[in-house]
Amino acid sequence: MKLTSFLTENRSAYGIVTDSGVIDLSRLSQTPDNLCSALTDPGAEQLALLGAGLTPDFALDEIRYEPPITTHKK
Predict the structure, then answer these.
(1) pLDDT tens digit sequence for 19-48
(2) Which pTM does this prediction carry?
(3) Per-domain residue ranges of the chain
(4) Angle at CA 57, nearest 5°, toward 14 and 49?
(5) Helix/strand/coil for 20
(6) Collapsed DSSP state (helix, strand, coil) of residue 51
(7) Per DSSP, what are the bridge partners of residue 24?
(8) Would you give the end-to-end CA distance of the chain in angstroms?
(9) Structure letter (DSSP) for residue 54
(10) Helices and strands, number each (H, E), in the chain
(11) Whole-angstrom Cα distance, residue 20 to residue 17?
């Protein structure tokens, strides 16, 4: 599974990259606002389960990739 942060429709989002596009996980009500938080809770395994069976929301040429983790802790 490939996860990415991206910009589309003038908003930041994150999701699962597939061969046919990107599944926008940030639009789901049970997910956090950013990829860093999502990887912490609920975690990558749960993100994969949430994305299972969903079709891509955006084609790859409809998004602009952003840095995957925009917040960090040292």
Answers:
(1) 999 999 999 988 888 888 888 888 888 889
(2) 0.85
(3) 2-66
(4) 60
(5) coil
(6) helix
(7) 15
(8) 26
(9) P
(10) 2, 4
(11) 8
d(CA 25, CA 32): 9
Going by C-alpha positions, the residue among 40, 38, 62 that lies closest to residue 15 is: 38
Residues 6+ away with beta carbon under 8 Å from 56: 18, 20, 21, 22, 23
| CA gap 5, 35 in Å, rounded | 7
Residues near 30 by beta carbon (within 8 Å), at least 6 away in sequence:
42, 50
The residue whose two tokens read 């609920």 is: 42
Residue 71, pLDDT score? 64
Distance CA 46, CA 50 (A): 6
Cα-trace Rg, the chain:
11
**What pLDDT does 40 receive?**
85
Residue 29 is predicted with a pLDDT of 84
